UniProtKB/TrEMBL annotation, chain A:
Annotated protein name in UniProt: glutathione transferase
Domain GST C-terminal: 88-224
GO biological process: glutathione metabolic process
Catalytic activity reported: RX + glutathione = an S-substituted glutathione + a halide anion + H(+)
PROSITE patterns (alphabetical): GST_CTER, GST_NTER
Automatic annotation (TrEMBL), chain B:
GO CC annotation: cytoplasm
EC supergroup of this enzyme: transferase
Protein name: glutathione transferase
Pfam families to which the protein is assigned, alphabetical: GST_C (PF00043), GST_N (PF02798)
Catalysed reactions listed for this entry: RX + glutathione = an S-substituted glutathione + a halide anion + H(+)
Boundaries of every GST N-terminal domain copy: 1-82
Domain GST C-terminal: start-end pairs: 90-226
Length: 241, 244
């Protein structure tokens, strides 16, 4: 039975898992979970992942959530090239360090900006107050600065000479606010140069394919039926508490 | 040269690193970083880590941040076949540990920390209780995380991956203990959680568990420390941000 991957490419962690599997020629059944239509709350998907988030995989009777756990599982099972998750203790620690930091370090801020700029105005029908927007932008700036100075530093990639899971997870998160129309690479030479290297390693075609959806968000959200997205209202209201 | 661990036991991730090193007999130098006095913002600590957070590990000239990375490093470097259960070599068991360690950042840790700040720290800084709406919302989030923990991560197993304790249980317990330190008994009316806590405590050893948690169970002394060290003014903008 084939590996099933439950994905929606609007989601950053779905993109990293998708790119990783494709890049390493791991064959899988792509099972679309349309997040903005609330498919993750359906009965079927609940059997795959009761936390109701994507990505999730089903490998035989083994179900697994969390993109980082998924990629490490795939890397080990399919014996992908060492550089993705190096066996060397210190290099591996550097990858783990980034993968741990990034949850609250960048993922949270990039996601928030995407919601504040695109989804919340659409669903609630109002622009987000300036002080909240400014606060979110400040947080993102701080994260990008730390990524440039500490995690990349003067190395080509986060773990050193070669691309790893850390760079892959980093790039998909950074692309999220880009999808909302915010050019985070402008004025950031080091980040841009790193982005170019990462894109080259992944392959432009695969990178673009994975990011096609998110980069068309502004247009897509404009045309969405906001009445179908009311399920997200409670989540949004909490943002403003 | 032994490991150096830069720690303050007020911090959940410091506790997991401390407990793991002690439990598995990894010799280390305890380097105290006094968070309540803002030592993490000082020049000396800045040379250890620009991120200005704890824990930090120094192994010779290799410096590492992030407790999850540190725990895995220590488990792999100092591990033996007997201690495999902490971070099992088995593919699926290891995946379950990784799954928990990934999920917990934005769930258990985020919500437990927030409730801790709202109950123990914010009132000291602002001079008043956190508005009911915000507190209720934070408690709701924590309650949901605990529900997911009991139903998905524990289910009917003694520990997260099954029969044996792992890094996942260790990281889980220290986070759950944070709001407990403010006097919130999260184990009351949660028999599954309480039974798991008892098992974890037994595996770690009660003396070690209590030693690691002595600081957080004694947070009443924080107000005076903050006042003595100018932390009130320093933390005010940070608190303001939390409410934006």
């Amino acid at each position: 039975m084939a590996l099933e991957m439950y994905l929606d490419l609007f989601s950053q962690p779905c993109r990293s898992v998708y790119i990783f599997a494709k890049k390493n020629n791991i064959s899988f059944d792509f099972r679309k979970v349309s997040l903005l239509e609330g498919e993750q709350y359906g009965e079927e998907f609940g059997k795959i992942n009761m936390i109701r988030k994507a990505p999730a995989i089903r490998d035989g009777d083994f179900c697994l959530a969390e993109s980082i756990a998924i990629m490490k599982y795939l890397a080990e099972k399919y014996q992908t090239s060492d550089h993705w998750y190096p066996a060397d203790l210190q290099k591996r620690a550097r990858v783990n360090e980034y993968l741990s930091w990034q949850h609250m370090g960048i993922r949270m801020h990039g996601s928030k900006l995407f919601w504040l700029r695109l989804l919340i105005p659409k669903i609630m029908g109002v622009e987000v107050p300036k002080d909240k927007m400014d606060g979110a932008l400040e947080d993102l700036e701080g994260s990008l600065k730390l990524i440039e100075e500490k995690f990349i530093g003067d190395k080509p990639f986060i773990a050193g000479e070669q691309i790893s899971l850390a760079d892959l997870v980093a790039i998909v998160e950074i692309m999220q606010p880009v999808g909302s129309g915010l050019d985070v690479f402008e004025g950031r030479l080091k980040l841009s140069a790193w982005r170019d290297r990462v894109q080259a390693e992944i392959g432009k075609e695969l990178f673009d394919e994975a990011h096609q959806g998110i980069l068309a968000s502004q247009e897509m959200v404009k045309n969405m039926d906001s009445s179908k997205m009311q399920v997200f209202k409670p989540k949004i209201l909490r943002f403003f508490l | 040269m032994p490991l150096e661990l830069y720690l303050d036991l007020h911090s959940q991730p410091c506790r997991s690193v401390f407990i793991f090193a002690k439990k598995t007999n990894i010799p280390f130098d305890f380097k105290f970083v006094d968070l309540a006095t803002g030592q993490q913002y000082g020049e000396d600590f800045g040379k250890i880590s620009v991120v200005r957070k704890v824990p930090v590990m120094r192994d010779g000239d290799f410096i590492l941040t992030e407790s999850v990375a540190i725990l895995k490093y220590m488990a792999e470097k100092f591990g033996t076949s007997d201690s495999d259960h902490w971070y099992p070599a088995d593919l699926q068991k290891r995946a379950r540990v990784n799954e928990y360690l990934s999920w917990q950042h934005a769930a258990m840790r985020a919500h437990g920390s927030k409730v801790f700040w709202f109950r123990a720290i914010v009132p000291i800084i602002t001079g008043s209780e956190v508005p009911k709406e915000k507190m209720d919302s934070a408690m709701e989030d924590l309650t949901l995380s605990l529900k997911v923990f009991e139903e998905k991560f524990l289910d009917d197993r003694p520990f997260i991956i099954g029969e044996k304790i792992s890094l996942a249980d260790l990281v889980a317990i220290v986070e759950i203990m944070q709001p407990v330190g403010t006097g919130l008994d999260l184990f009351e009316n949660r028999p599954t959680l309480g039974a798991w806590r008892d098992r974890v405590k037994k595996e770690l050893g009660e003396a070690l568990f209590d030693k690691a948690h002595k600081t957080i169970m004694d947070v009443d002394s924080l107000p005076q420390t903050f006042e003595n060290n100018g932390m009130l003014e320093f933390l005010k903008p940070k608190i303001q941000k939390m409410f934006n």
